[in-house]
Design brief:
Helix content: 10-25%
Low-confidence stretches: none
Radius of gyration: 16 Å
Strand content: 35-45%
Order of helices and strands: EHEEEEHEEE
Largest sheet: 4 strands, mixed
Number of strands: 8
Length: about 140
Amino acid sequence: MPNALVPEFAVSDFANSKTFYCDVLGFQVAYERPEEGFAYLSLGEAELMIDQIGAGRTFDDGHLPEGYPFGRGLNVQIEVPSIAPLLKALEAVGHELYLTPEDKWYRNDEIEVGNRQFVVADPDGYLLRFFEDLGARPVD
């Protein structure tokens, strides 16, 4: 069953974005309409869509990004089994990180949940926060 919430990123260069998401980060194409510059992508249980600005349907009544970086004020969190392969793939193509890897613990009522995470900007500047689960521990 598809996720209840799937972000769609308006992108400036469909081919470049598809290469970044699929060839570098390892997303798979669930389906696409290349003539519209559209692809529905998945990585594990995470799903997102990319859509070429100006091809197919474009919401251009004031809702398009006006300049790099796109998606200001938003980052999407994507759970993966391990962040290490992603970091290696990004380093191999010389793609800089927005936030270097860190272990971060977040309070959730009476426990803390841990993430090993990093943030990377896609070619249009959308921020992607990849994390692996570190489990839970009691709050100190």
